[in-house]
């Protein structure tokens, strides 16, 4: 099945699918860049690890410990002694349990010194909502922006609060930030919407080096095909993150044209 959307596929933003999409895209970018960066650079897949609690999906129910029989219960360990049923019965409650979160990202490093030249981040839902995930990422982001390392920040999620930048007065569905160390605080923001092709960008490296063009659109289409997402996604239904109102008619027409509705 051919990739159905001209740009980002909103059905891939489904929380059940996104972790797989994120992981595959990280690997696809690394595999695409590695042969082009040899022999001066190599691409490392790294992990950011933190603990989070409070997410509804991380809550566990505690079963009732109520004795169902209304008569007095007998303690088998102490014969002939009646144990009265408590007058106040406990309720079933939930408690937040800690979750260890691992988020992958890429580092372009110099061969020999292992100096980090460029960091490539693909945002996750936890990065875009209040909590430990956003805090952990913002600390990392500020550290990179205050260094001599370039930052590429890819946001392919419409939900959540975008990362802070100044000078962007428009609301867009998706964004790619390319922040070159030598140009800061100025950076390049590729802001695009559901109907747009995902823009390609040059990967920032050290001065004088040939910079490969990263075509996320082709990489995403390749992932869609290899992962057989067409067999998993039900296009007859609305995506979890619904279409913007101004795009409902366009999306319906597009999916009908592709024979998916």
- Global structural class: alpha+beta
Segments where pLDDT lies below 50 for 5+ residues? 56-74
- Which percent bin holds the helix content? 10-25%
Order of helical and strand elements: HEEEEEEEHEEEEEHH
Describe the model.
The protein has about 260 residues and is α+β, with helices and mostly antiparallel strands. It has four helices and twelve strands, in the order αβββββββαβββββαα. It has helices at about 20-35, 130-145, 215-225, 250-255; strands at about 40-50, 60, 75, 80-85, 95, 100-110, 115-120, 150-155, 175-180, 190, 200, 215. The chain has a six-stranded mixed beta sheet. The chain has a two-stranded antiparallel ribbon with strand order 2-5. Strand 9 (about 175-180) and strand 10 form a beta hairpin. The radius of gyration is 25 Å and the shape is globular.
Main attributes?
single chain, 6-stranded mixed β-sheet, two-stranded antiparallel sheet, 12 strands, globular
Summarize the structure.
With 261 residues, the protein is α+β, with helices and mostly antiparallel strands. Helices cover 21% and strands 24% of the residues.
